[in-house]
Amino acid sequence: MSKNVKKHLPLRTTLIAVMAASLLGVGVVATSTAAPQAQAAAVDPTVNGYRNVGYFPQWGVYARDFKLKKLQDSGGASKLTHLNYAFGNIHYQDLTCFIANKAQGDGPNGSDGAGDAWADFGMGYTADNSVAGVADTWDQKLAGSFNQLKQLKAKNPNLKTMISIGGWTWSKNFSLAAATDASRKKLVSSCVNLYLKGNLPVIDGRGGDGAAAGVFDGIDIDWEWPGSNNGNTGNHVDTVNDRANFKALLQEFRTQLDALGAQNGKHYELSAFLPANPADIASGGWNDPQLYNYLDFGNIQGYDLWGAWAPTMTGHQGNLYDDPQDPRPAAQKFSVDKAVKAYLSNGVPAKQLGIGLAMYGRGWQGAPSSTPWGSATAGAPGKYETGINNYDDIKTVGTDYYNSAIGAAWRSDGNLWWSYDNAQTVQQKANYIASKGLGGGMWWDLSGDKSFELGSVLVNTLKAAPSGPITSDPTTPTTPPTTPPTTPPTTPPTTPPAGCAGLPTWSATATYVKDDQTTYQGKKWKAKWWTQNEAPGASEWGPWEDLGSC
Questions:
Q1: Are the C-beta atoms of 279 and 324 separated by less than 8 Å?
Q2: Domain definitions of the chain by residue range
Q3: Exposed, middle or buried: residue 528 (CB in 10 Å: 0-12, 13-18, 19+)?
Q4: Which residue is catalytic, options 224, 252, 453, 534?
Q5: Residue partners of 53: CB distance under 8 A and separation at least 6
C-alpha cells in the first residue's frame, strides 16, 4: 500500500436534502491559533464521560516519521481513550483478514493482496525510538508497531487499541465477504484469530501463534461504503443486498467477539467509521438503530466535505453547519450537523456517536481571495500528495480565519488557501458534542498533529463541559471473587418472586439485545447491548442495567 494514501476520500455525490441548522449572523474574523495545552489528562477510562479516539496510520512510521513513541512523548497517548490502528485488509482469494509483506497486491486490483507485515510486526526498534526505551532483539517474535502498541498500553492502562479493517483503499472485498452466512463467519473468525488471538503468520522469523495476543481490545469496521458506488474505484458493491448483509456482518462480529470474551472475561469492543453523506447513510443502513445493538459506538466522518478534487473553487472541508454562501446544489451542501441529525432523527442513541475531526487540511493554490468559495487554479502543493497537508505544515501559513456561525476555519496567504480544524473549531465542536449528548470525538490522523495541540484542546474543553454520557467502561473486567461460594442454595426457588411475573428467567444460553428484560436472583434486569452468557450483576461495567428487586 502506498504510504501516503489517505484514509477517507471526499463526499462527492448527490445527497438526500436535509434541512440545515439555523445560523447566527456572526462575522468572519482573522485570528491567531491558540497556544497548545500541555498538561496531561488525569487517569480516566473516559475523558469526563466522553471518548477521544485517534487513528494511527500503518504507514506513518516511514516518511512521516511518526512512531508511537512520539505519541507517548507528546502526552497524546494519555489523553486518548481509543487508538485505531489503520488498516487491516481482506484478501480477495479467500475473503479473510490477512497480513502480508506486499506493497502491491496480486489480485485484479492492486490493493487486493497488499499488506505491510514489516510495519505491523517486523520492524526492529532501537532504545531511542521505542515507547519502552528498550531495543528489540533479533529473535523476538513480535516487533514493529504491534509491539509498540503493547508498550504504549503498558504506560497507559486505560487506553483501548482497535484494529481498523478496510478504509478507503482496502474496502474492496467487504461486500463479497459479507454476502453469505458462511462467508461472514469465515471473515470474522479470521479477523478474531489474527488480531485478537494474535495468531500471526511467520514472516522473516517474526510472528507465530499467539505472538500478538493482547495487542488489540477490539475491531473497528471501516467499510467505505456498503450498498454505495461512492467508494473507491473497483470496489465490489451489491446495491440490493449490502445493507442487509452489512447488518448481519456486524451481528456476526458481535457474536464471535462476545464468545471470545466469555472465555477470558473481557469485553471486546466493536466500533465503526460512519459516513456523513445522507445517500451513503441510507444505502448502507448506517442509521438503523438495531446496528447499535452490535456496535459499542461509531464515529461520523466530519471532514473531506470538500477538497481539491474540485480544483477551481475553494471551500470548507469540515464545517460544523451549512454555509449560506455555499454556491453548490443543495444536495451537495455537507456539514457535520446535517450528518449528526441524520442519525439522531432515526433513533440512533447519541452516546454511541462521535464526530470526526481533522489533523490535516485540504487546500488550493492560485486562490487570491481569502473568502470561501473563491476561485483557484489547482490543488495546493502537499508534502505527500496534492491538495492535502498535515496540520503541523499549514498552521502558520498566511492569515487564520474563523467563522463561528458555520464552525469553520481556514488559512489564506493570497495564493494558498487551506481549510482545516484549528483550536477554535475544535473547541466549538467539543461544545457541540456536549450539547448534543454525543459520545465524543475522533481524529484522522494522529501523525498530522505531532505535539497533540488540537487533541489537547478537545480534551480540555470536554473536561470543562458537563459530564458526558459514557458513564462506565465495558472493557474493564472485574476481579473475580477470591473464593467461590462454599455452599450453594440448598433448594432453588420453585416460583419466581412476586413482581417478576411475565419476565423470563435469565439463561446462559439465550441471546439478549438492547432493552430485553429478564429476572435473575430476585431482581429485574434490562440489557444495555447485545449479550450472551454474562450473568446480570457479574460486572458493574457489564451489559445489564439493574431495575431493582422484584
A1: no
A2: 29-36+50-464, 493-550
A3: middle
A4: 224
A5: 80, 81, 82, 83, 84, 271, 299, 354, 440, 441, 442, 443
Amino acid in position 461: T
Judged by DSSP in three states, 197 sits in: coil
- Give the model's confidence band at 173: pLDDT under 50 very low, under 70 low, under 90 confident, else very high: very high
How many separate helices (H) and strands (E) can be counted in the chain? Answer: 12, 25
- 455-469: pLDDT as tens digits: 999 999 999 999 999
Say how many C-beta atoms besides its own lie within 10 A of residue 151's C-beta: 18
CATH number belonging to domain 493-550: 2.10.10.20
pLDDT 10s digits, 354-396: 999 999 999 999 999 999 999 999 999 999 999 999 999 999 9
User: What's the pTM value of the predicted model, to 2 decimals?
Assistant: 0.81
CATH H-level, domain 29-36+50-464: superfamily: Glycosidases (3.20.20.80)
- 222-251: b (≥16 Cβ within 10 Å) or e: bbbbbbbebbbeebbbbeeebbebbbbbbb
Which grid coordinates belong to 243? Answer: 445493507
Closest CA to 278 of 362, 358, 353, 341: 341
Catalytic (active site) residue 224: yes
